[in-house]
Every structure is written in C-alpha cells, then in structure tokens.
Amino acid sequence: MTTGRRRLSEILPILLRWGTFTVGISVMPVVFNALAAYTRGQPVRYVDLVANGELLLVSVAISAAAVGELAVGIGPWASGKVLLMAMSLFTSILAAWWFADVTAVARAHDPVDRHAIAVGSTWVFASALVVGACCIFASRMTP
C-alpha cells in the first residue's frame, strides 16, 4: 500500500467521526425544527428552517472545533495550517457577528430578507464545512 493511501485510510475515519459528531450533532436543531413542522402539518421550507440564523451558529461551532484541532500543534506545513486557522477564525467571527445581527433584528421586529439570510448562511455553513474538513485533514498531516 502506498504512503498516500495509508494516510488517507488513517484520516478518513477521523473525518467521518468529525462529520458525525461535530457536524451531524450541530445540525440537529435544524432537523428537529423540520420534524416539528412536519409533525404539525406545516410546510417544511428550507428558508423557514434556517432564516433565523441557525446555520450561522452551527458554522461557529464547526469553525471553532476546526481551529481547536489545528491549535494542538502546528508541526509540518505550518504556513498552510496557519492559513487554515485564519480562515476558520474568520468564518467563526463572521458567523457569530451575523447571527448576533440577525437575532437583534428579530428582537426589534425590523423587516429582514429571510431569503438572503437563508442563502447567505448556507454559504457560510458550506465554507465552514470545507475549511473545517481541511483543518481536520491538515491536523493529521505528517512529513
């Protein structure tokens, strides 16, 4: 077996564990909201499920966990790992700030574009997933 395949076979279970526990459990409130709407006979629309910033909170959790994985020890490929940490921190700060704004607007009963929040938070969530997975992968890289 080649070294690259061996490394992939070692990292894949770690990525699956991260996906199951960090990502999977983090999105459970969105899943529960969908089940609650379905149980009550209400339409289950994506915008309604995520327009309150739920994915932004999930993105904060995913990004923070990813930084934690890399912060344990930089080691080899330090500049790439520092870049990934910076990207994760940026995503986490952006998502936290935006979630705070979304909730402040909701408390003030100001009008918002729910579709824009749903689409934007989906992009932030996707970014958190990609960068988070890269952080998990990079945290296990050895020379």
Q: Total number of β-strand segments?
A: 0
How large is the radius of gyration?
18 Å
Q: What is the 3D form?
A: globular
Instruction: Give the SSE order as H and E letters.
Output: HHHHHH
Sketch the major β-sheet: none
Low-confidence stretches: none
Number of helices: 6
Into which percentage range does the β-strand content fall? under 5%
Percent of residues in helices comes to: over 70%
Give the total of domains.
1
What class would the helix/strand composition place it in?
mainly alpha
What's a concise summary of this model?
The protein is mainly alpha-helical. It has 6 helices and no strands.
How would you describe what is shown here?
This protein is 81% helix and 0% strand. With 143 residues, it is mainly α. It has one domain. The radius of gyration is 18 Å and the shape is globular. The model has no long low-confidence stretch (mean pLDDT 88).
What features would you highlight for this structure?
single chain; 143 residues; mainly alpha
Topology summary:
Layout: H1 3-26, H2 28-39, H3 46-50, H4 54-71, H5 78-108, H6 114-139
Helix pairs in contact: 1-6, 4-5, 4-6, 5-6
